[in-house]
Specification:
Length: about 290
């Protein structure tokens, strides 16, 4: 029987997660799961490092994309010769990562996938800023979407996924486009832009289909630069929800395995819905670095 180590964020979603309830589900399914409650990076790193020392190679994130972000950043530095398998139980407000594979939120459904896990090797993103670096799974943003993540973190959790859309319009009202240089392989964008998306997965922001052509296993990012005046957001955003925005004149799309974003302005940067810092970013990826349970 596979031994699983689960990192649980009790504050994920609009209702608090109870480990006792999670254990009822896993016991009922006959799964061997050790639970650890971790809501901060130091807690997750300590718990996961100890689990690796104990021989665990199969890990579970129970929460939103931020919880998966905590887990992957605790796990990747510990990955040596062994290969890790990660399952994501979508229970947070956004939970966009698993939408790429057609899964919606659900504790029971998520744990059922662990009975006979179907593994899929996926790429892992690496982001380097001036003062820190991180790994990410789903998507990274530089610009207004990162500012939206900061606003969303302050909104009431009972709003659920709706708080990401509300946060975007609140952030946009005060945001100014900036001169950016974006280099993706041999391609380069230079000019005013309001946001740069570097997508590994297809969805973000509580269900927005930002990168309908993205694959998490092709060794490439789907990079989109949103330029033009702010007022174009009123025509772009409805199309982002449907994934039909790629032909909009305000969207420049590139594909590549390394992205360098620079600006004279220290713009906000986020990954997987978590604020990372400010400034330029160099983003690469590790091809098929982990196995994701789908």
């Amino acid at each position: 029987m596979i031994r699983w180590f689960a990192v649980v964020n009790p504050a994920a979603g609009s209702r608090r997660l109870r480990v006792s309830r999670l254990k009822e589900v896993t016991d009922g399914l006959g799964l061997d799961v050790t639970f650890s409650v971790s809501s901060t990076s130091p807690e997750a790193v300590a718990a996961v490092s100890h689990a690796v020392e104990q021989g665990f190679t199969h890990f579970v994130s129970v929460g939103g994309d931020g919880t998966a972000h905590l887990l992957i950043n605790a796990l990747m530095p510990a990955q040596g010769a062994q290969r890790f398998t990660v399952a994501v139980i979508a229970a947070g407000s956004g939970s966009d990562l698993m939408r790429t594979f057609g899964h919606s939120k659900g504790i029971e459904e998520g744990f059922e996938r662990l009975i006979e896990p179907d593994r899929y090797a996926i790429d892992v993103g690496v982001m380097v800023l001036k003062e820190r670096s991180c790994y990410f799974l789903n998507a990274a943003n530089v610009g207004v979407a990162a500012a939206s993540a900061a606003v969303a973190a302050r909104l009431p959790r009972f709003l659920g996924g709706l708080r990401y859309m509300i946060a975007f319009w609140l952030a946009l009202a005060r945001y100014r486009s900036s001169e950016l240089t974006v280099v993706v392989g041999r391609h380069q964008f230079g000019g005013k832009a309001i946001n740069v998306v570097v997508a590994n997965g297809q969805f973000f922001g509580g269900g927005m289909n930002i990168a309908p052509r993205a694959s998490m296993a092709d060794g490439l990012y789907d990079v989109q630069v949103f330029s033009g005046p702010k007022r174009q957001a009123f025509t772009v955003m409805p199309r982002v929800l449907r994934g039909s925005h790629l032909t909009h004149r305000a969207v420049q799309r590139y594909v590549g395995s390394e992205v360098v974003i620079s600006s004279k302005v220290d713009l906000l940067v986020e990954a997987d819905g978590e604020l990372i810092g400010r400034g330029g970013a160099t983003i690469s990826l590790l091809p098929r670095a982990i196995d994701l349970v789908i």
